[in-house]
Amino acid sequence: xxxxxxxxxxxxxxxxxxxxxxxxxxxxxxxxxxxxxxxxxxxxxxxxxxxxxxxxxxxxxxxxxxxxxxxxxxxxxxxxxxxxxxxxxxxxxxxxxxxxxxxxxxxxxxxxxxxxxxxxxxxxxxxxxxxxxxxxxxxxxxxxxxxxxxxxxxxxxxxxxxxxxxxxxxxxxxxxxxxxxxxxxxxxxxxxxxxxxxxxxxxxxxxxxxxxxxxxxxxxxxxxxxxxxxxxxxxxxxxxxxxxxxxxxxxxxxxxxx
Length: 258
Known about the structure:
Number of strands: 11
Number of domains: 1
Mean pLDDT: 92
Radius of gyration: 20 Å
Low-confidence stretches: none
CATH superfamily: Survival protein SurE-like phosphatase/nucleotidase
């Protein structure tokens, strides 16, 4: 069993070592970590196409790359493990939930999606801790989530992820876990703000804010399930579903003469 691990919190994130140590102790498991050399949160599915990327082996099977999370997955499957592909790609465990439309912004999810684009089983994993939670960012904070992922892997989760799909997992933090549920996407309401300020040289800059204002009350959504105390498991296909208004769109196009 070969597992490639990445994240968007950066190579210094403590959960990487926890995952590496957990799976490396299992007989016949080979683990490779390739993660950004510094935090790359909210970089989505970005790739570096206009500059060279440096990769550095910090210790055995533990690499830092000065790129985005998707770059890290590519480096793992096309360079370091180019002769034998991983059986599973795990991206995370992220500090903070990736729920609802967060999947479009998340570098953690972007790394898993990149693996899916190459027909590899993948999962993105996040610990749904909020900024106001008493979170110390130490290995113990990730213990439950790591053990849950370990059980999924030992029970063959990679065999249940079809080509062109990956799964997005969110684990509640600091509350009683009631179980695990297969969920659908919810919607989080962000009061986005753009706050301008001037530098001493009279240049205008902006802070972009994402003031969280709760989620839509959608039954069996990832947002609501995590809030209720369930681990959310959302299968994601990178090809979108059929557009519900194809016939109306076609009639509109028929009216337009080109």
